[in-house]
Amino acid sequence: MEKALLKYFNLIRIIIAIAIGILISVVIILLVSANPGESLRLLLLGPFLNRSRFGNIIEMACPIIFCGLAIAVPFQAEQFNVGAEGALFIGAAVGTAVAVSTRMPVFIHIPFILLIAGLTGALWGFIPGYLKAKWQASELVSTLMLNYVAFYIGLFIINHYFRDKNAGYLVSYYLPETAWLPQIIPGTRIHLGVIFSVLFAGITYFFLYHTTTGYEIRITGMNPHFARYGGINVGRVIVMSQMVGGFLAAMGGMIEVMGIYHRFNWQSTPGYGWDGVMVAIIGRNHPIFIIFASLFLAYLRVGGQVLNLLSDVPSEVISVIQSIIILLITAEAFLERYRQQIIVREVEMGGEKIS
Fold it and tell me: Which residues contact 95 (CB under 8 A, 6 or more apart)?
């Protein structure tokens, strides 16, 4: 029994954390809502009450999955990268510029634009990777600062060269229809990019766990000194992990533009890169788990929107509820003492040594 608990400890811990978070949410709603039963129903069940809301969960999860993968790959190499937001933004801006400037058949145009956007993100990821490998510059600081650089460069490209002056606000020209990702479920905004996000999660899993480069990334993250001793070029691995992360984030940004808006309409960063940090931590940097973590985060967001629109619960309370649940899930020390007690009992009883 205790061995089974250890085997599935992280899953059990996450379930308990969610349950505690929901319990705290119930208490908060009881304190602030005149109709707490209805408010709680809207929070927990509201996202599933019609097709459109359920579709919102799926389509919202799409860019979060990409950004979660973009964060997870450098994290696996022990590179604390927070640059997904910048790579997403500048990749989408450059991809939009290419899209409105070219005309191709749809089966060529879509992959061409995504490739250009991805390569832009990879090039952006090269900068902090090279700074880290060459001069040991903190990747946390460099990626954070480069987010601002990417933001203003992206705005400059769109607003000065590709702005639709006939629109009533600052947006790009519409992408040609050959660059639109088709909707795949009527009555929702679920588009082909959702399939791409799941596909790339599978590709990232294969890359990390079934290729030589992925093995080198994971070994470097576990112990860079051992990696060097084993003949791995640690500097190359650092640069590669950051470039892969930038590629994935930029792909996610461009897919959001092509699938939802059909034009570049961000005048501030959308925040998906920071969501990516959360889901990478929740999913333990595992590409498949990141899919479920992204869906859970999107579910919380949609539930919060429904609660805000249809109940008397203030939007600030919704943010508090979401934060509590996520903080409990990501707390590494949560129930860790209980886990250690199980390990000690197993050893004392002569069980197999568990590392």
Answer: 113, 114, 116, 117, 120, 250, 253, 254, 257
Q: Cβ-count burial of 165 within 10 angstroms (0-12 exposed, 13-18 middle, 19+ buried)?
A: exposed
Domain annotation covers residue 291: yes
271 in a structural domain: yes
Containing domain of residue 264, as a range?
34-312
CATH label of the domain that carries residue 281: 1.10.3470
Tokens coding 342: 């199980």
Residue by residue, DSSP assigns 77-92 as: TT-----HHHHHHHHH
Query: Buried b / exposed e across 290-307, counting CB within 10 Å, b at 16+?
Result: bbbbbbbbbbbbbbbbbb
Distances (CA, A) of 64 to 60, 172, 178, 247: 7, 23, 25, 14
**Residue 21 included in any domain:** no
The pLDDT tens digits of the residues spanning 262-321 come to: 999 999 999 999 999 989 988 889 999 999 999 999 998 898 889 888 988 877 777 787
Instruction: Write the pLDDT tens digit of every residue in 62-90.
Output: 999 999 999 999 999 999 889 999 999 99
What the block records as the tokens of 203 is 């590709």
**Pairwise CA distance, residues 79 & 337, whole Å:** 28
Place of tokens 């990777």: 129
Which pLDDT does position 326 carry in this prediction?
78
Examine residue 177 and state whether it is found in any structural domain, yes or no. yes
Largest interatomic CA distance in the chain:
76
